[in-house]
Amino acid sequence: MTPLLEAEQLVKEFPLTRGVLLTRRVGVVRAVDGVSLALAEGEALGLVGETGCGKTTLAHLLLQLLEPTSGTIRYRGEDVTGARGARLRALRRERQVVFQDPMASLNPRRTVGAIVAEPFAIHGLLPERSRRRGRVGELLEQVGLDSAEANRYPHELSGGQRQRVGIARAIALGPRLLVADEPVSALDVSIQAQILALLRRLQRELGLALLLITHDLAVVRHLCERVAVMERGTLVEVAPADELFAAPRHPYTRELLAAVPRLPRPQSPPSPSSPSPSST
Amino acid sequence: MLAYVVRRLLWGLVLLLLVSALTFVVFYVLPSADPAALRAGRNASPETLAAIRHNLELDRPLTAQFGHFLERLVLHGDLGYSYYSDAPVRSLLADRLGATVSLTLGAVVIWVLVSVPLGILSALRPRSWLDRITMGGALVAVSVPVYWLGLVALYLFADDIGRWPLLPGAGSYVPLVRDPGGWFTSLLLPWLVLAATFAAIYARLLRSQLVETMAEDYVRTARAKGLSERRVVLRHGLRAAMTPFVTLVGLDVGLLLGGAVLTETVFAIPGIGRLNYDAITHADFPVIQGTVLVAALFVILANIAVDVAYAYLDPRVRRA
Amino acid sequence: MSAALTIEDLRVAFATEEGELRAVDGVSLAVARGRTLGLVGESGSGKSVTALAAMGLLPAGARVSGRVLLDGEDVLGAPAERLRALRGAAIAMVFQDPLSALHPLLRVGAQVAEAVRAHAAVSRAAARARSLELLELVGIPEPARRLDAYPHELSGGQRQRALIAIALANEPHVLIADEPTTALDVTVQAQILALLARLRDELGMAMVLISHDLGVVAGAADEIAVVYAGRVVERAPAGELLAAPQHPYTWGLLTSTPRIDAPRGAELVPIPGRPPSLVHPPPGCRFEPRCAYARPAHRRLDPPLEPLAGAEAHEVACLLPEAARGELWRRLAQGASPAEARAAVPLAEDAP
Prior knowledge:
The complex is a heterotrimer.
Chain A: E1 5-18, E2 24-39, E3 44-48, H1 55-62, E4 70-75, E5 78-79, H2 85-94, E6 95-98, H3 102-105, H4 112-123, H5 129-142, H6 159-171, E7 177-181, H7 189-206, E8 209-214, H8 217-223, E9 226-231, E10 234-240, H9 241-246, H10 251-259
Parallel strand pairs in A: 3-8, 3-9, 6-7, 7-8
Antiparallel strand pairs in A: 1-2, 1-4, 4-5, 9-10
Helix pairs in contact in A: 4-5, 4-6, 5-6, 6-7
Chain B: H1 2-29, H2 35-40, H3 46-55, H4 62-76, H5 89-124, H6 129-143, H7 146-157, H8 180-214, H9 217-224, H10 229-257, H11 261-266, H12 272-281, H13 285-313
Helix pairs in contact in B: 1-13, 5-6, 5-8, 5-10, 5-13, 6-8, 7-8, 8-10, 9-10, 10-13, 12-13
Chain C: E1 3-16, E2 19-32, E3 36-40, H1 47-55, E4 62-70, E5 73-74, H2 80-86, E6 91-94, H3 98-101, H4 108-117, H5 124-137, H6 143-147, H7 156-168, E7 174-178, H8 186-203, E8 206-211, H9 214-220, E9 223-228, E10 231-237, H10 238-243, H11 248-256, E11 306-307, E12 315-316, H12 322-333, H13 338-344
Parallel strand pairs in C: 3-8, 3-9, 6-7, 7-8
Antiparallel strand pairs in C: 1-2, 1-4, 4-5, 9-10, 10-12, 11-12
């Protein structure tokens, strides 16, 4: 079965320039250095790595927000690497993104309803106001918000609610692929759980493929079937989640796993008759 | 950094070339009095007019005139002759430069000395009566036209026409080297008037910048170290707030060195701005060209200086 | 062992447009030297405000009551000059975002030296030497070079180490670390936590580690206090709190945190709803609106923080009977959902 999204030997170089007026290249930075990846329909893939490893650049390449220096991208079997104009716009409907900072990614001057309705406006869908409003209400409910929130502004909502709005906007056009770039890092723990549960539910309900980019391995553990570990522009290990967490092969993966702070496993409390340890 | 400055200077020359070409074109495209006619006076005969026109090279094509101008400028440093006063433009400019520089620098000193403390105090006590008075006064000072303020100042304090004669009035400027005392007193009113508007703007600017920087995390860290509040404000808050302040002062100084036309006119100070104004009314093109070039030169130099200063003040922008 | 830092019934309120916001509403804590207290709570729970109150860094206009004892001295009522002398000397704080907490326009060495000279009359040269010592102490590579570097030239981990160096400049008795690892990568997090533990032991400090991440606190703290809606809802030695938590909010935190050692299908149980308004807090138990096990009476009754029957050191503010709580947790720990646990444990409708 053809993968939904396939990347082959993607490379993205950023030039290092010197000089202000008569600039010249003195070298390059390879943010992404020969990455090949495949994502199946409905699959949840976690892309983990630390700051500066290139995972966000890779995501932007896969979403075609950036053009690769070399390499190919195939969407549903078709080579879309150089896609432009109308073709690219059509592709955008199928691949959407949710960002990390819900405050920064929502236009503070527009209402929630306007924000969620914007994708329709951009692609010229659902021109009738009433139908659009109705659809926006449905989307808000789908992400766990009350449809009445459509009249509020982003700053009136909590972080978790804003992130839900961002998700509603992303699924508005019924994409096949959702890229989530650190979707819960900026949120409190209990809200994180709500958003993760939401993402999981939506993935199942809508058959979305999910590319989850994060540095939080526990989140990946919870949502993803496969995991790709990125270090300095290359993928050092790609494996099914169970395998990777149980028996990591690459030393960097092992390093990452070892560094994650662990909660002790919840266990049954000691029987009431034994004396509890007093604080030492 | 040095290479950066040199490159900027070279581009500055290119810019000056463009500016002078543009001035040339503007002068010829916009309807203005015919300088030949102005020189010739009334009832001049057509032959006289033609002769004068030929004399001033006005009958040659634009490009040729411009080429000749550049040639004279680059090879001989010659900016031409004024149509109106028949003096070399260069010497006219040289005579006037002192007055403009005196006016500008004095005003800058006053406005900085006034706006910094006011800005700091207002920022530290927002919405206090001091803050409200300062900002309210600033609003008035910004709204009032500088020539109006100048005329009112003369009307109140000038020793010839003022109600409370305290200071020399319009036209009393003497160069520093000739009479320092006279120079100083003659410039006091113009300095205060010119500084008023700028002090207002800069006090407001510093206030808003300082309010912002005092709310930053690094100020909290400074307090957590146990530093005195004074040190926190000056070394941490003010240091960060001053960067835009300094750069804008630099730019304004560049602009003013090109001539504060209104102030110079009201106080009859023989500066470059006044020279420019007179030249325009007399369609004295070579002088206009000269003053515009000088003004452009100062602005370019100020911009370069400001960029260098900014890189010095904020290390984050240093990667050229 | 007497406590280096004791907080007694701290209350901090701010005036807002909607009314008085009680950010901290009766918090009592104590930390002894050589020990780490973990303060866990979400944003708005009051944990950071508590720390700022201990440092005397609350904004003007905050209404404060209660006592904060630093080595036995009450700092809440102290004059500003006394507070200034204590800040950075007897008690120090490390803040969350190292990039914004360091002054962008001053060199790192100068910022560290400034902390030294704030409390001791030393020469510039001596302060500089001390800065170098401190940068070495916190494990910054090539410390001599870093002295003259600017914050933006350092990595996130190095910046945080520099902040720690600033905090340690005068060998404080109490160190408060407010989310010191939140902005950092996971491998760096581990290094910073290890560094803090080592420094605590070497310098014999009392440490308060604030975090919203139970995992971070679990590994590093001797005692954990869980903060919710401006109050401590549970406090116990770390191992006991994690093995046998007694408050439904703590259960919620534990079951809603994704775990790296859990299978993929494991359900995260989010805590429904949001924290209550601190301007108009609920009259009864503050967690009641979100609690899956609450009785109707809990809307009216406000539970005090009390020790458990069998364990003096473990305190909880909950109206449910201790035995019922134990049962509920037993089931939750085995993977039951709140609804399932609730159904399995008998709780009288009318009684608390």
